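Q: Focus on the chain.
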Amino acid sequence: MADGSQQDTSIWPIPKFHFQVKWDSEVMSFQEVSGLDVEGQVIEYRRGDSPEFSTVKMPGIKKYSNITMKKGVFKSDNKFWDWFSQIKMNTIKRIPVTISLLDEGGNPTMVWTLANAFPTKITGTDLKSDGNEVAIETIEIAHEGLTIENS
C-alpha cells in the first residue's frame, strides 16, 4: 500500500472548490465564479491580386467574457443592488476584482485580476413553495482586462 505522506504534490491538479473573491478591498464569499475567458478575435484579409483564393488570418482585438458570480442571499445584504444602483447616465464606479484559487493552507496559487469591473446584470433568486434549496442571487460583471498570476 502506498504511503500518502510521500506523495509528490506536482502529480495532481489543484482542486477548484477553495477560492476567494476580493472586490476592491472587501473579501466576499461566493458559491460559484465562471467566465474567466479571453479570446483573440481573428482578422481575415485578402488582397485583390493574391494568387491564393483564400484569406490570410491575423490576430486581432482581445475580447473578454463577462464574469458571472453566484452567492447565497443573506438578510440585509444588498451589495449587488447598491453597486448596480450607482449607474447614472453611463457612469459607474469601476473597481478591481481579484479572484484567487487557494491551496489547503489558504494561500493563493493562481490569481485572476479584473481591471475596471462594473455590474451589467443582477438576477435575484427564484422562489418555490415546495423547494428545499438555498436562495442564490447572481451578478454578471464586465471588465476591461484580465491578468493571471501563478504563485
